[in-house]
Design goal:
Blueprint lengths: L3 E6 L19 E2 L2 E2 H11 L4 E6 L3 H9 L6 E6 L7 H7 L8 E5 L2 E3 L18 E6 L13 E5 L2 E6 L7 E9 L2 H7 L9 H10 L3 E5 L5 E3 L3 H14 L5
Parallel strand pairs: 1-4, 1-6, 4-5, 8-12
Antiparallel strand pairs: 2-3, 6-11, 7-13, 8-11, 9-10, 9-11
Helix pairs in contact: 3-5, 4-5
Amino acid sequence: MTDQIVILAAGLGSRLGSAVAGVPKPLMEVAGQPLIAHALAHAEASGCRDAIVVIGYEGARVRAAVEARRSAMTIRFVVTPDPTAPNGHSLLAAAPLAGARCFLLMVDHVFSQPVLRRLDDGEPVPDEAVRLLIDRTPDASLDLVDATKVALRGRQIVAIGKQLERWDAIDTGCFRLTPAVFAALRQVPAGSPLTVSAAMQRLAGAGRMTAVDIGSSDWADVDTPADRLAAERLLDVTLPRHR
């Protein structure tokens, strides 16, 4: 069972407007709690015992907020040097602390119920490097233009990216990783944006990426004020208040 998680929480939240308001994105409140509290509660409820939180913009404030929250998990922090850089830099910063298998969660993705454990279900595919939780029937409120899309062949993800013309499902921002992901990040050509998706594209092209269906669980990607309202409606109904 996977018991470690990496949470990417370094961003500014420029599209959400939180940075303009002086609030780092991980501390933007949704349904009465900051995004980082939702992410940590999700990890705990999924059985994680070790969390690596990658911080950047206003990192000291984010760290203080996390440390003020009671948790049964061991929580360690990694600072990414440039919070404006693509998110692959944040993930690479976590590599020295990552174990042989870990979950990856984006701090701005919230869920109606814990879903990470689904990534441990089922037999492994030969040479599998990463599993991604996908949504085949995304909610109408999701911005499909900006969403990361995946093309499938059975359980195998054969292509991933925002610009796919033909696709079968949406990336929910929940992954189960092996060290091969960090190797793929290091192989992204110089001059290309070092994003998580760039590494995933390499692994999908090599047949090393597997899809797991999220099923009927609802989720939201909180990038804009409209997204925040949709997440408020989702979480206010489905989740208890975090302590």
